[in-house]
């Protein structure tokens, strides 16, 4: 007879634990853009050697959350409006192609997963846990993107989303932007539940534009033209 018990979850390695904590500090605003990162201090803080800290920072560099400058070490990336605009332009092209592959049958398959992710987003927002919100937000959107069965394109989208996670967290720290983000996500979920994939391209375009406008306003003091 087989047991109904779930297998025990593997505890995180030192590198995984350190990675999660540094990522949370960056996306949560405890390590703002431009912050210099001292590996010895982090090693002491987490009670580990420099090796897992160094490996974690290399991973975060690949996610475009930190950058390494020779003789100056690691820093949290600076937010740059022109970079954000370029990322969003590429995302629009790729996400539009993905969303055009979505069918009403696919909508029925992913609606519940998107709803779960949205509930998590709401709870993380209530707790102002923006690092966890960013993760749940990705789950919400990639439940849909992944259903298009374009794995290579979806991986490329993942890299673009890595590069914009810090902008996304910055957007959520601006309290006035949160309600509009919530409304946009409810609209996307409603279209999926209604089995109306044709609406998704326009809804996502409007969602991206609203996000960019809000971030640009907060970074340079006025909305995008």
TrEMBL record:
<dbReference type="InterPro" id="IPR036390">
    <property type="entry name" value="WH_DNA-bd_sf"/>
</dbReference>
<dbReference type="Pfam" id="PF07729">
    <property type="entry name" value="FCD"/>
</dbReference>
<keyword id="KW-0805">Transcription regulation</keyword>
<protein>
    <submittedName>
        <fullName>GntR family transcriptional regulator</fullName>
    </submittedName>
</protein>
<dbReference type="InterPro" id="IPR036388">
    <property type="entry name" value="WH-like_DNA-bd_sf"/>
</dbReference>
<dbReference type="InterPro" id="IPR011711">
    <property type="entry name" value="GntR_C"/>
</dbReference>
<dbReference type="InterPro" id="IPR008920">
    <property type="entry name" value="TF_FadR/GntR_C"/>
</dbReference>
<dbReference type="InterPro" id="IPR000524">
    <property type="entry name" value="Tscrpt_reg_HTH_GntR"/>
</dbReference>
<dbReference type="GO" id="GO:0003677">
    <property type="term" value="F:DNA binding"/>
</dbReference>
<keyword id="KW-0238">DNA-binding</keyword>
<feature type="domain" description="HTH gntR-type">
    <location>
        <begin position="12"/>
        <end position="79"/>
    </location>
</feature>
<keyword id="KW-0804">Transcription</keyword>
<dbReference type="GO" id="GO:0003700">
    <property type="term" value="F:DNA-binding transcription factor activity"/>
</dbReference>
<dbReference type="Pfam" id="PF00392">
    <property type="entry name" value="GntR"/>
</dbReference>
């Amino acid at each position: 007879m087989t047991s109904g018990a779930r297998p025990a979850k593997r505890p995180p390695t030192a590198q995984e634990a350190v990675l999660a904590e540094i990522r949370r500090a960056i996306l949560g605003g405890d390590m703002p853009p431009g912050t210099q990162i001292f590996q010895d201090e982090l090693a002491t803080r987490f009670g580990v050697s420099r090796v897992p800290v160094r490996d974690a920072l290399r991973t975060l560099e690949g996610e475009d959350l930190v950058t390494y400058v020779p003789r100056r070490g690691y820093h949290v990336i600076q937010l740059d409006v022109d970079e954000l605009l370029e990322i969003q332009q590429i995302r629009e092209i790729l996400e539009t192609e993905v969303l055009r592959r979505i069918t009403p049958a696919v909508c029925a398959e992913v609606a519940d997963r998107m709803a779960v992710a949205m509930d998590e987003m709401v709870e993380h927002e209530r707790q102002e846990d923006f690092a966890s919100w960013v993760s749940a937000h990705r789950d919400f959107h990639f439940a849909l993107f992944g259903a298009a069965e374009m794995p290579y394109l979806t991986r490329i989208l993942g890299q673009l989303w890595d590069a914009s996670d810090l902008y996304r967290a910055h957007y959520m720290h601006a309290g006035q932007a949160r309600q509009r983000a919530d409304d946009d996500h409810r609209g996307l979920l409603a279209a999926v539940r209604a089995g109306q994939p044709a609406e998704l391209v326009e809804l996502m375009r409007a969602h991206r534009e609203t996000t960019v406008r809000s971030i640009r306003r907060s970074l340079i003091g006025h909305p995008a033209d």
